[in-house]
Design brief:
Chain B: Residues 220-241 are annotated as: Disordered. The complex is a heterodimer of chains A (228) and B (241). Chain A is mostly helical and 228 residues long. Chain A is 68% helix and 4% strand. Chain A has a single domain (10-211), classed as Orthogonal Bundle (Arp2/3 complex 21 kDa subunit ARPC3). Chain A is built from 7 helices and 2 strands, in the order ααββααααα. Chain A has a two-stranded antiparallel sheet. In chain A, α1 packs across α4 (80-97), α3 (71-78) runs parallel beside α7 (172-204) and α4 (80-97) packs antiparallel against α5 (106-131). The longest helix of chain A has 33 residues, at 172-204. Chain A is globular. Chain B is built from 9 helices and 2 strands, in the order αααααββαααα. Chain B is mainly alpha-helical and 241 residues long. Chain B starts with 15 loop residues before the first helix and ends in a 29-residue tail after the last helix. Chain B folds into 2 domains: 16-131, no CATH class; 145-214, no CATH class. Chain B has helices at residues 16-19, 22-38, 44-61, 65-71, 76-88, 103-129, 132-141, 146-175, 186-212, and strands at 93-96, 99-102. Chain B has a two-stranded antiparallel sheet. Classes of the chains: A mainly alpha (228), B mainly alpha (241). Chains A and B meet through α1, α2, β1, α4 and α7 of A and α2, α5, α6, α8 and α9 of B.
């Protein structure tokens, strides 16, 4: 759902751009607390992973395919702030080097694919983890539900933006129904993949899953000084 | 990145457009796209002028038009939407080839197609004429936060490594009779993605340790800085920005 140039008018694009800049600004400060001095290299490699994961398409029907957005996935794996940074950087690089998603729509794309899916995914995930029993087996289903809900919410937010700054006289009810129906299907694909990926990482390296960290004793990286 | 490792859309060349400072090209792209989006949809002469101007820049860059045209497929999903627009939009109907369609929908569809195409072509021209490292340097000159540029730098640097790794995993899956697109094989696919995440994360840790062992304290004394005297393994003549 990379939005191209010309889909929303200039004032809406600038407004979503301002929201995106503010969100990324907060994430920049908070990501430092999630990853300390490892922020740049770790977030860079995770962003590369998100980009690679987005290359996988799954069929949605009618011959079209959706691809993973990865907001909820990134949030559960590396934390919401680092996750938002990673998805935003992916979108920036895609817009600048791959011409995927319009330049003026970059803010819109960061808000929809980054902020909304990360925020919804993370809040739902944390809520579920808080009420479910404290076991590693609950992490993957909670992440899946977060991913499932994030995609239709992003579609709903898109419809709202389209109502404000859309450049076509389409009946808004129709847009909302079509977007929600379509993106619920995409959300199911997103949920299945997110749940399975998180499940497999929890099984192999639970310490790498930010959302599962409270289940494990802390194991900080130890750097030993060696005499010359 | 050494020479000959340009990103996916880069087209090697030595035209004035290739040599122009990256931050100016980025700025021009943003301004151009904003102006196109802000132009009222009935101002067709203005669109014609934008198209002529853009094609002049493409001609100046000596990137073959066919090269750019083939890469405009990223636009296809929205072209489909634009084509559907006249049929789903409301408003007074008009006849096109004997089919009743919505007049405002037709106008909006055409405008979307034109605006979208201009934006995509402009972005492709930037991508084709600017090396990834120059784009990053341009972002830094435009005061994009240092950490964002660094993360993007790591992403660009390791993109080929990680996507290559994923490509090999997919080849291995296919050679064992797995169809990654089929939902039946999603569990296998997800385990591969999980493995890819672990590998990417561990690579990040190794990169971080390697940097710490070379004196990294959280900020990068980088060759991306145009004022830096530190060499960055590139031919001196290639650095114009």
């Amino acid at each position: 759902m990379h939005v191209p140039d010309g889909f929303l008018d200039a004032s809406t694009s600038i407004a979503t751009g301002a929201v995106a800049v503010a969100a990324v600004g907060v994430a920049l400060r908070k990501a430092r607390t999630e990853l300390d001095d490892r922020t740049a290299p770790m977030a860079g490699l995770v962003a590369t992973f998100v980009f690679a994961a987005q290359m996988l398409n799954f069929p949605v029907g009618a011959g079209t395919s959706g691809h993973l957005m990865g907001g909820a996935l990134a949030a559960v794996l590396v934390g919401p702030w680092t996750g938002l940074l990673c998805v935003s950087v992916v979108l920036l690089v895609q817009a600048l080097l791959m011409a995927d998603g319009g330049i003026t729509a970059l803010g819109t794309n960061v808000v929809l694919i980054g902020v909304v899916t990360v925020a919804v995914g993370w809040v739902v995930f944390r809520g579920l983890v808080a009420v479910l029993p404290k076991r590693a087996a609950t992490i993957a289903p909670a992440a899946a539900v977060g991913a499932l809900l994030g995609v239709p919410v992003a579609a709903g937010v898109f419809t709202g933006l389209f109502a404000v700054g859309g450049l076509a006289p389409v009946d808004l009810g129709d847009v909302l129904v079509a977007m929600l129906a379509w993106h619920t299907v995409i959300g199911v694909g997103e949920a299945v993949i997110t749940g399975l990926v998180v499940g497999s990482v929890v099984a192999a390296r639970p310490d790498l899953v930010h959302g599962a960290r409270h289940l494990l004793p802390a194991r900080p990286l130890e750097i030993r000084e060696v005499a010359a | 990145m050494g020479a000959g490792h340009g990103h996916l859309l880069h087209y090697h060349g030595h035209s004035p457009v290739h040599r122009a400072p990256a931050h100016l090209k980025l700025l021009a792209l943003v301004v151009f796209a904003l102006v196109v989006v802000a132009t009222p949809r009935s101002a067709w002469p203005a669109y014609a002028a934008y198209a002529v101007g853009l094609l002049a820049v493409v001609a100046l860059s000596r990137v073959p038009l066919g090269y750019l045209a083939r890469r405009m497929v990223v636009e296809v999903p929205f072209a489909v939407f634009a084509v559907l627009m006249p049929f789903v939009a409301t408003g007074p109907r008009t006849e096109v080839l004997g089919v009743a369609v919505s007049q405002p929908g037709l106008d909006a569809g055409l405008a979307l197609l034109v605006k979208g195409s201009l934006g995509v072509l402009a972005s492709l021209t930037l991508a084709a004429t600017t090396e990834a490292t120059d784009v990053l340097r341009g972002l830094r000159r435009l005061r994009v936060p240092e950490l964002v540029v660094q993360i993007a730098g790591f992403m660009v640097r390791y993109l080929e490594v990680v996507t290559g790794e994923m490509g090999r995993m997919l080849t291995a899956m296919r050679s064992r009779g797995c169809d990654p697109r089929s939902p039946r094989h999603w569990p296998t696919l997800a385990r591969s993605l999980g493995a890819l995440f672990v590998r990417s994360y561990e690579r990040g840790e190794r990169v971080h340790l390697a940097m710490v062992s070379r004196g990294y304290t959280g900020t990068l004394p980088t060759g991306l800085d145009p004022r830096s005297r530190v060499g960055e393994g590139r031919a001196p003549g290639a650095r114009v920005a």
